[in-house]
Amino acid sequence: MSYIKDITDKEKLNDAVMKQDQIIANQAHHVSMGEMIGNIAHQWRQPLSVISSSATGLLVQKEYGALSDDIFVETCNNINDNAQYLSKTIDDFRNFIKGDRKQIRFDLSNDINSFLHLVEGAIKSTQIHLEVDLKEDITIFGYPNELIQCFINIFNNSKDEFKSIKTKRYFLISTYSEGKNAVITLQDNAGGIPEHILPKIFDPYFTTKEDSQGTGLGLNMTHDLIVNGMGGYIEVSNKTYEYNNETHTGAQFKITLPFS
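Above: the chain's sequence. Below: its structure in C-alpha cell form.
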C-alpha cells in the first residue's frame, strides 16, 4: 500500500509542478504582450506624425495654390512609405503573437532583424546606440518566434538598467559559429549586474525592480525557452570592453544554440 501511495504522491507532485510551470508561462506571456504593445506604440508615433503632417501640408499648399506636381508626388510617396512601414509592423506583430510552436529551420540574421524591427521604437525613444555584427548564413532548427521573445526579454532588461546611467547607451549584438553551434551575444554598457545577483538572475519571480515595475519572469522564461525549448544554453556575466575608443562595462548574455 505504501508503494502505491508513493507513486500517487509523486504523480500529484508532478502535476503540481506542471501546473506551476504553466502558470509562470502564462504570466510571462501576458507581461511580454504588454511590453510588445508598448513597443508598437513607440514605433507608430513617428510614421503617424509624418502621415498627418504630410496630408495637412498638401491641403495648405493646395489652398494657397502652391502645390506643384513634384511636391504632390513626393509627399504622396512619403505617405505611402510610412503607411507600408505601419503595415510591416502589423505583420511582424501578428506573426509574433500567433505563437505557432513548430520547429523549423530558419535564418538567424533574419530572426534578429525581425526582433530589432519590433523594438525599433523603444531604441529610438530611449536613445540607445545599436551596434550589430551578424555572421551571414547561420541557420538553426528551432522556434524563431520564441527566440525573438528571448531577445526582447534581454533587451528590456538592458533598457530598464539604462535609466540609471547618464553616458551614451550602447546595446551590442553579435553572432558567430563555434563548432556545431551558433552563438549570439547581447551586451550593454549599463554598469553590469551585482555579483551576488548573477546566480539568481534566471530564477522565477526574482527581480531587483519595484513590485510595480517587474515580475521576475522575463529572464526565467528566456532560460526555459533556450534550454528546454531549443536544446541550447544561456549564460550571463559582466564584461568590460573597448568600444569607440572608450572603456565600457555591462552585462553580456551569451546564447549558444545547436545548428540542428
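The two ends are 46 Å apart (CA to CA).
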